[in-house]
Amino acid sequence: MREFLRNLSFCFAAGCFAGLAYAIGLWAMGHYGFTRFLHVDIAPYLSNAYIYQRVVWGGVCGLIFMLPWQKSWVTRGFLLSLIPAGIMLLVLLPMRGYGVGALALGTLTPLVIILACAAGGIAGSGLLRAQGK
What we know:
- By secondary structure, this protein is mainly alpha-helical.
- Helix content is about 70%, strand content about 0%.
- The chain has one domain.
- The two termini are about 15 Å apart.
């Protein structure tokens, strides 16, 4: 039981780190004009509320890291990041009125979301690898 709780807390912490990496990655893509170049209307402002929400949800999504995975940490981070990206593109953003895939924000919105989630997933997986997990 103790080992399970230890792994749970490691995965939650890695998810929080992944959420921070996602938030900064998405902000950087908007701030430096990558999203504008792709004609995607996503350019979040870096604020406490913006970061806090993504760090907390990143921690919850970090529980995905509990799944057994024997491949490389980069592959694990990328492939597991597709789960929250899919939830965002198929459930959360359509609920906000952006349509399936959030295509109302631009045709390449799914690419931007997948790249930002991949940055977070790889960062979280790297943190777990650094901790020996």
